[in-house]
Protein 1
Amino acid sequence: MTVKVAVLGVGMMGANHADQLTNLVAGADVTVINDFDDERANAIADAIPGARVVSDPFDAIVAEDVDAVVIATPGPVHEKQVLACLEAGKPVLCEKPLTTDVESSLEIVKAEAALGKQLIQIGFMRRFDDEYMKLRALVESGELGAPIMLHLAHRNPAVPDHFDSAMIVKDCLVHEVDCARFLLGEEIKSVHILKPRPNSNARDGLQDPQFAIFEMESGRMVDAEAFVTTGIAYEVRSEAIFERGSAQIGLDVNLVRKSAPGIWGGTVTPGFKERFGRAYHDQLQRWVNAVKSGDETGNYVDGPRAWDGYAAAAVCDAGVRSLTTSTRVEVDMVDRASIPGA
Amino acid sequence: MTVKVAVLGVGMMGANHADQLTNLVAGADVTVINDFDDERANAIADAIPGARVVSDPFDAIVAEDVDAVVIATPGPVHEKQVLACLEAGKPVLCEKPLTTDVESSLEIVKAEAALGKQLIQIGFMRRFDDEYMKLRALVESGELGAPIMLHLAHRNPAVPDHFDSAMIVKDCLVHEVDCARFLLGEEIKSVHILKPRPNSNARDGLQDPQFAIFEMESGRMVDAEAFVTTGIAYEVRSEAIFERGSAQIGLDVNLVRKSAPGIWGGTVTPGFKERFGRAYHDQLQRWVNAVKSGDETGNYVDGPRAWDGYAAAAVCDAGVRSLTTSTRVEVDMVDRASIPGA
Amino acid sequence: MTVKVAVLGVGMMGANHADQLTNLVAGADVTVINDFDDERANAIADAIPGARVVSDPFDAIVAEDVDAVVIATPGPVHEKQVLACLEAGKPVLCEKPLTTDVESSLEIVKAEAALGKQLIQIGFMRRFDDEYMKLRALVESGELGAPIMLHLAHRNPAVPDHFDSAMIVKDCLVHEVDCARFLLGEEIKSVHILKPRPNSNARDGLQDPQFAIFEMESGRMVDAEAFVTTGIAYEVRSEAIFERGSAQIGLDVNLVRKSAPGIWGGTVTPGFKERFGRAYHDQLQRWVNAVKSGDETGNYVDGPRAWDGYAAAAVCDAGVRSLTTSTRVEVDMVDRASIPGA
Amino acid sequence: MTVKVAVLGVGMMGANHADQLTNLVAGADVTVINDFDDERANAIADAIPGARVVSDPFDAIVAEDVDAVVIATPGPVHEKQVLACLEAGKPVLCEKPLTTDVESSLEIVKAEAALGKQLIQIGFMRRFDDEYMKLRALVESGELGAPIMLHLAHRNPAVPDHFDSAMIVKDCLVHEVDCARFLLGEEIKSVHILKPRPNSNARDGLQDPQFAIFEMESGRMVDAEAFVTTGIAYEVRSEAIFERGSAQIGLDVNLVRKSAPGIWGGTVTPGFKERFGRAYHDQLQRWVNAVKSGDETGNYVDGPRAWDGYAAAAVCDAGVRSLTTSTRVEVDMVDRASIPGA
């Protein structure tokens, strides 16, 4: 069986998904391309043998030649599109954010739970990265005892002009939010975003860097530096402190050179594609495989679920409030057990 | 277009190719499985939707539902199978060795050249590895000046009991032979295999480690340690010394931990799948893509060619003679320019 | 000229100073040993040709055969001993803490300032460590722009049974306090000590690890993990985030090995002597040289001064209050400019 | 007791020794400075309180205010000066080479052996380097089994114009000769110096790099790259391959930075003082301590002995012949056991 996929939204991320599904992922055909900009949709579809453009995303979701949906549209339209997928009973891989506010994310969690089968996967692709999987495995093994703290860092060379302080929380820290939850296997109880003196290269008014303190349910603490105007490269590094040791991932190595004027070293990973390109591929491949085998298991996901999207939204919401109030803010989340199937 | 592939030989390597073509490579379907052991062929084919077993490899090659062939059979039958692919005009990805002797390898080079289109690709998968590609790119860029020396190391934890000293040359050093040729872009002129005091863990009579000196056409020198009873892991490391700097690949890093009793470090890559798994995937994907686009280009390869298989055979042949005679042995190769199209 | 030194207090640290002054530092002779335990003093003095025991520390300070004093006695007696050195006009290298409370530290700063010459050096030996000096030089050079954040970590394998939560602040974090001040060249404005879930290997009631947030005068932020029951080794690591880059020190490398079962790595520095042994030596050597040249310069120090001891005391005092109150505590310090000569 | 030292030859190396003995080494006073250039001797002596110039090296050796001698004069005068030290019964630390030919080195070995006490130490300072000591300790421990091979590299940024191919053997490879002997604890049986295509930045006629193969008595093999026109820095790296693992020293780490344009790394050690400065200090300190304690032990050395100087001379002599003849050359050495006390 080949999975026939509709890709909604073919900006940078969606176009990349469409290309990977076509040229790198086994078992999937992109049959439908949708974008609010038909011209862009056509340009992408032209490069994919057998793909057609459907202008209305809801038509695309219910189309007969569509088995599963990838949502890479702007956040504000996610809610309706994901719900349409649920209604159509079609598996969906939805880019973060699940929705743009906590309440609607929770509604989606409930809607999927009510359906009784897992259809929604969230695009937190780091969970498919070799190093993160190794670090998670180390946590699960208990080999170094229980984890106690995480030190996380997320650095971008630059951001577009419209990027504001809250977007650092919702677009960058959100990944560290999911890492903390994924690596420690528990929810975040409170967020406090500290504001170091801003980088002089940051646009006026942009609070960059930000230094977040997450307090986990168990009392563990996680700190996360987000710094988006470094001018250097894409740097993502995580350190876990355990009861009997520590472990780090995200060191830049590979080709190491020594050259004039007396320096040794390598290159820092320039962007997220170089750092997580393989994770994106593996995310899609495993999702396609899950969609194929869904008939047997009743679940069409192999990765983070709607709940993970909801939890990230709740934490980021608290983060933005902390940014505004300069105080520690409790995360407001419903009890997962209260929604059977979530 | 989906490329329909016959896989000849489904031992460990062929079975892995069949699995990757089916589950990880876009644009290819495995339609035919062949093995001298029909039972093994059936077991593999059963796991691949749409694949059937063909007992005679030559029937498989000419089958109508076969566009291209992967040869992973034992070396002694390669010659006839590759020639049959040429005769049938079908692109072939042939695992090393191209053939088991220098003369027949040369015959194949000539046969393909006479055909006027490139159909044969050799499975030197390291050329698809990110780090090797980066090191080759550094050589080509001229950024550090011309390369002067290479220090290469190839270590295996263990080898089967039947592995003899000549096999260290033909199965292990052969990879370093291709690396030297790939990285420096020139042929090897002579080989001298030095014999350090053997490892006490090596089987009696096995010359392990071996230390090879390759003299390149340009006078550059390459040394290559092959050590196959280390008991540790699969370790492959290369250092290039340039006129204005040096560069190393193959350092083991990724997750780094610190733990009792006071040690820091990571794990050494346990086997070739972990080290080169992605290179195998990319080799297949790029080959499948080349086969697809061959009608336009007339060439159905994207990687090492028959000549590279011949050159490796010639160098390894000299290597085995050096091992026997304990002297430096000139490599005997025809002039590539004498075979237009090779 | 050879500097004749009295060593007050010959526990582990003082004994080490006496040994280094005798056997590794040029230009100094230990002439007087003092300890509250005469037996211990005699044992140490016996191993040093020409050294005698003086039972009363104040007699030792004023002795004719004493040019300069090293104070390695318990903290509570520092105040009177340092003041006696000032009164006698003798240069003194005082181990941290300068005194055990903020007020008396300030009194000493004032007393030395009133004297008009610099006689007091504090034993913050990290300032003499190659790596810290390189990181400080990088800050001073401005090459990577202004520093924005520091991430500091301080880990000990174990602590004695009497070690309590406040001692983690005063004995461990105090080093990070001085590092933050030394590396950034400014004072600490507030301290907030966060309390992650304690290590299960920590004694009941011990808040370990602690995670401190220092806000600097300029608005820069520094975080410092102190973790003293890791069971691993002595690990001290610092990362500075600049406007145009970042830099790390304290990576454990040196001899790197690969061995069964498939691991690579080295040993983590077991203790402070291995990590900072050379810094201790260089601290003493540079102090001895400064004492020698003091007659010309009028200043007998080459390193952290009384003010640095006072500042550390003030910050640690705030730290202990933060630990108790679980809030951010402003550091209460006088204006340095108000004490000319401090 | 303070050891009164005469320093013969105060070029760069001797001046450094005089400075360290005066300002960094405990227990030694430089009392006499000698140099063929009196002016240079005066300049050095003026900076050392209590030092005087003696114009004739043989007068310096026998002077009453000289307990021990450091020889840092040009190689051709070493023989007579070392013999004069033996005759005067004075401990001597002699910079490499012991003498400039194999025969006279052997004569010195015999003369010292005849004396019945150890007076001669050779300045192979790497034996005092922490990393080399750790690697030697790893060999001795047997933890990874017996050593099988060493891969050694020695790179200099540049050499003076008069530096010829033979000097690469005698001034650079000589250190690797001693390392091979020190690390493996056995003699070198043959030397073969291979000649890679020279660096285009090397002076015309200079064979640079050179690649030496040492065959040890036990059949172990050692390869050593010497490359003296790299333009980069001072790079010395050693890897030992054992029966059950491998180990590397000489990796450049310390401060690691990440900065634009997207690179990470540190600086390569610029020169031998930065790399081995502490080894030079420790060599002197331990030698001074050995000279002090010699009365009890009858031996006044703590480091490489005259025999080590002789062995290095014999190996380098073979190396130069290999360079000329382009063949493997057996090392011609007497049996150490034939000289009791050597």
Protein 2
Amino acid sequence: MRTHYCGLVDEALIGQTVTLCGWTDVARNLGGVCFIDLRDHEGIVQVTVDPSNAEVFKVAASLGYEDVLQVVGVVRAREAVNAKIRTGKVEVIATRIEILNKAAPLPFHAHENPGEDIRLKYRYLDLRTPEMQRKQRTRIRLVQALRRWLDARGFQDIETPILTKATPEGARDFLVPARMHPGEFYALPQSPQLFKQILMVAGFDRYYQIARCFRDEALRADRQLEFTQLDMEFAFVRERDVQDTVEGMIRDVFREVMDVELDAQFPRMTWAEAMRRYGSDKPDLRIALELVDVAELVKSSEFAVFAAAAADPDGRVAALRIPGGASLSRKQIDEYAAHAAKHGAKGLAYVKIDEAGEISSPIRKFFAEDAFAALLKHVGAGNGDIVFFGAGAYNKVSDFMGALRLKAGKDFGLVQDGWKPLWVTDFPMFEWDDEAQRYVALHHPFTAPAVDDIADLRANAKTAVSRGYDMVLNGNEIGGGSIRIHRPEMQSAVFELLGIGAEEAEAKFGFLLDALKFGAPPHGGIAFGIDRIAALMAGTESIRDVIPFPKTTTAQCLMTGAPSPIPDEQLAEVHVMVRPKVS
Amino acid sequence: MRTHYCGLVDEALIGQTVTLCGWTDVARNLGGVCFIDLRDHEGIVQVTVDPSNAEVFKVAASLGYEDVLQVVGVVRAREAVNAKIRTGKVEVIATRIEILNKAAPLPFHAHENPGEDIRLKYRYLDLRTPEMQRKQRTRIRLVQALRRWLDARGFQDIETPILTKATPEGARDFLVPARMHPGEFYALPQSPQLFKQILMVAGFDRYYQIARCFRDEALRADRQLEFTQLDMEFAFVRERDVQDTVEGMIRDVFREVMDVELDAQFPRMTWAEAMRRYGSDKPDLRIALELVDVAELVKSSEFAVFAAAAADPDGRVAALRIPGGASLSRKQIDEYAAHAAKHGAKGLAYVKIDEAGEISSPIRKFFAEDAFAALLKHVGAGNGDIVFFGAGAYNKVSDFMGALRLKAGKDFGLVQDGWKPLWVTDFPMFEWDDEAQRYVALHHPFTAPAVDDIADLRANAKTAVSRGYDMVLNGNEIGGGSIRIHRPEMQSAVFELLGIGAEEAEAKFGFLLDALKFGAPPHGGIAFGIDRIAALMAGTESIRDVIPFPKTTTAQCLMTGAPSPIPDEQLAEVHVMVRPKVS
């Protein structure tokens, strides 16, 4: 239907007749001559219609936004060059215009900056904008670059089922009633975790899959019901085999897609160090601020909150110095306190030192003068700074002080440009869940502990470290993985420590325990969040921008209207009914 | 953990120390020397353990099938070369063996030829066999070759949702209760059909996706609940643009994966011709047999069944000559009649001419001698042949005579080796559904009719031809596609002809009708069945062999035990309950 793409018409074609297809980006009648900006996926070219060609002119004069056209014309050098577009040196003098499809008046124009709901309802119109095309293309190029890289290195792209068994990995499963098995259900996979481990047992060596995963969780701005991960697994490996390989992959892919050179070696940091210095297991290293432990300097203070936390072996007293932070008003300081509270703080102490060296601080009175001076010296506080202090349980203090660090980084323009990747390693094996009064797995229950000895693990569960690792980029966990348990006895022991009894383990994970029995190789892997990496590359905060057809935070597709009611007869076929409302 | 792969140890490594990891394929103690066949995904190498190395020997002598090992040893030229394996000229003299994971006694050995249920339950053991590895690799290579081909030509790999709206395309939807919307459901997509059309409206130009599709239908040997298709769509195209492109793709991919050269131009055949000559819309051209129409020659016969069908404008009387078919016994002929009956025949007439020219036929008596001779001459029947005759409604006769043709082809060894692709085109737009008393779409309701004029389509719905096309290979429909409707009025008219009222159309497909209104380009596409093509390439009848984790014909995963009962509390969270059994 066409000889060339609109956006690729250039001077080499001058004098030639071309046939183009595309959308009417805009059509104007200027001084008796019609100009049509004809657009396709490659770009825009100007089509010019002279009134001497009465029939064609009549068509051109009738055009509205987004009418779909086929245009035949001759390429000519343009008098008024438009340097803004690639085809700006030429125009096409139309000899024939056919309207392939007339467009109704549009519900909105992109420049009107409609709300996201309208954009999602008419997703096909939103996706036509150059900005959305650019974002989608970034994702397409990312996935293509990853596949090419993996294929060239012998990774095998293997499919795992979408209709599978409900085997909770922490999040809530999506359920699918089984028509052929009344009262039974399939579940959508939260990840291909178990299948990829099974593939290693089955003798595959290096597996990957760009896999759709499903978690029925509350949606936040950066979560979707379904999301996409690059899922990988390797047989006969230790941590560094996996890490070095995928670090190389990420570096190569950023070079290819973004023309960016990441660190030749990503920094490595234990979980403990990351929590201590940055109050986060996914520190944003673009922000130079660090937390400073001050327990030793405050343990004798009269401020009970500090003294108690400093004396508690599981406690922490940490300080965050913000250079220039003395400019914060009382109201702004309250905002910081509120932000800390949102992240679990019971209170937030501060010391503000104005440019003249004048100190204002609600906690100064609890300190002897020299102790206070020593404290300020220890945290490096000087004129113009503010220092926030948090005290309490170690992880809680780390969390909210880490959150303050991020807020301060943004508020004070302390986020450097560029890309700061790192590895976080040596995660705790277990986390104590106060509510459930039992351990939960920090990664997932298939993660190997650093110790090989089961008795040792049992005896030191609280402090046990796992063989898990995360790749972090600019404060985002973009990849998470681990060496897996490959011995059935260890897997059973870990289930037991997690409060999963032998019977429950057999019912839920019996096939995995079986598989580990019949010759499972040592193996490990990782999964990368494609949506998040694409969003980072595309420079957008929302992963919705890099998902062609995303759902809202209320879990709806505004374009198709999913989810929707289903006739009861159809539900009867799959042996379920809508539950009567309990009033 | 290793320096080399087992299957790649070769003479270049003689004298070197290598570290290998793999499975104990077999371990034998022969005359005081231990030989271990160590296997990984690349193949097998012989590890030899001399008793002089007492410690290592003790480990070696203890080994059982499938124990997972790490072996350090020195590569040496082998005295007794084993020409059957790639590494047969060398062996590895073990200096250290570590058992990485001991394997329990296996539930079966591959050579015992266990039933498919056992193989599916222990899928990880079954997948370890060289035969299953070969089949899986064929699939992996197919998908990789397709992607590489498409990426090189500017096709964009774009994801479409798995949780979407119930929009029946003919088959039954899988439903997923929506937690955040009590009483509402998502559906799993039967194909990305509507989304890919929307992508064309959104300005993408050439889309592809290796997409998972879901149909809750009765499972046959070659069907699965979920299956994989290469889904493609093109903007601004006509039939030949799509067909020529993907024909080239299939040719290139067969060359790359199978080292096979397909026809430089695939034969093309209308649906009418395919039905007439082969009694099938997916003729297996490897079988040279053809149907012959004989209505003209039998319309005056006294055999009422023939005469009536010959006189009916919607009837058909067809003959199938099977060279050498006179060898069929009475019992075998009955089997052919039963096969025809299974495919809709009410009866099956035949004429058998033995080697001596003796004729036996239950219908001879209905014909005058010269008419009978003319009939035999017309169908080319000679000594040693049998000719089957079918009479009745055109499509029914075509169906069962086509089925006989396939059976005869197999029974008489008339299926040629090799690959016979073709295009089938010009399908009927609609099929009359006797039960529902209305038209149904032969492809799907978004397929464009060959006529552009709505009045014309309405007036001639019965004989209307669509712009659909199928790619057929060796009797399998491996790809099906069409030019789509891009004008909203035509889409509404087709919905109407299919008995989908304006209200229903709006509720189910309103977003598509909307999208067509706001500047939809002419577009078309195709979808290829990856499972089927992989099975054909791998030389297996069952697509289960090329799916890593397939379900049984009873829709179960025997390995994980899906589907399974779900606690009622969990169902309550998604607002459904299991329907009480109606007794």
